[in-house]
Amino acid sequence: MGDFPIEMVLAVVAILVSAGAFLWEFVFVGRRQLGYRVQMDTPVTGEIESVFPGVLPQLRPDLDGSSPDLKDLSVVLVRVENSGAVTIDSHDYQAPDAGRVGLHLHFPQRRVIGMAVTELSEPGLADSLDRDSGIAVREDTIGHIGVIDLPKVSLNRGDHYKILAILQRSEGTGEYRPPIVQGGIKGGKVAETQSRTGASRVMLALTTFLVMVIIVQLTVAAFEPDPAPLECVAGKLTVVGSSAFAPVVKDAAEQYRKRCAGAEFAFGFEGTERGLDRLVEEGKENHELLAITDGPKGEGYSNLVSRALGLSLFSVVVHKDVGVRSLTAAQIEDIYQDRVTNWREVGGPDLPIVIVNRIPGSGTRNTFERRMLSQPQVSRSHVSCKALEDTPPAGAAHCDVQVTKDMLQAVAELRGAIGYSELSEAGTAEVSTVAVDGIAATSDAAMNRTYPFWGIEFAYSYGELPGDSLSAAFRRYLTDEAGRNVLAAHGNVACADLPDPTRCQPDV
User: What is the CATH number that goes with domain 234-508?
Assistant: First the structure.
């Protein structure tokens, strides 16, 4: 959709249509309206069913007392009401100002032989409907229509009165045509109203429209790419360093690239030390280069500037045949100091322990030794884990690997092996993670310091970065809300979300 704010336009249109429908339904159309309802139209079949015998002959339209031939009688009850939003005054009727009659209640095919006013919503309405008000009964003999003339009654909003009429057929057979009220209201209308529980057509149409707006907005949101970051910078950035944090950085880079089509990324995750060395070698001439490390850079590298990203979880991992699910911190140290060489000594099977280490200079190895060991490991000669895979050792052994992927592969393939890895990567490998002192690796446990194996990830640049560079923008992106969400998705915690952000300082 480009920069066109389609969702904003849809929202404004929905509001305007809703407001317009409300005004049309309740203000313009229904502002001044006099309604009527036929609440009863019942035939009278004869006196045999009457509780008071002789009542029908007493209905005489003539004053001389002569009784007409009463047959095909019916009783009708009509409610006349102010169904609008404002008061209807006597001068609002579209009838001659000098006249007292404002409405005419017509009964086609019937004549009126008796009528009464009943059920006044307000007692004061009686003064407007007495004998001197102009209310009268007559007959349109040409059209065979009985008529009750109704006066110009002032009705507040919601007021009503009812007319009860006794009628006799004047022509035809079968069902009677329905009664109708004729007349007019200035600036409004006279209309039949019906008692109903469903919504009006206008409200149904409005509801349908709003549902369609919501569907369109959801469709737009589903296919619209994420909005561009506040700092969308084009260019090509190379990120090197820690292989443990590589999945997080690659995921964040992909999210950034989707939002900023002009950004490109290249990666060289060969380990923390190699990443820092490359930054020293190339960073002075290339500002579009960042190095990611598991922990502070250590001694040297004086020209490098750090930015803390977040807390990263690590875990001790073992070969699945070992069967050990928890070790104490002391047992882990004893293993890596060669004081324990068989798994049976720590509750496992009779199986020699194969120690897998990251090579010296690895950020993950530095984090492991810093968090899990009280002193440096015993000195060992370098042995390739690939060599052990070709010739399995008869007893306790050790070997070294370059990056996280190799660590997890070696532990998965060497029986009796133990190693360590970034937690989210370990969860996808054919190895078993080990709790420390019975505490599993979780973000909460690391944040409250009950789980010890964690580190802080840093992004390093060669000197201060130009503010308009992709490297500066991406580094900021890693610490803003979007980047923090990526970290959280991989089980890490952004420094800004830690209860104690000072833990992200290099010396903590």
Answer: 3.40.190.10
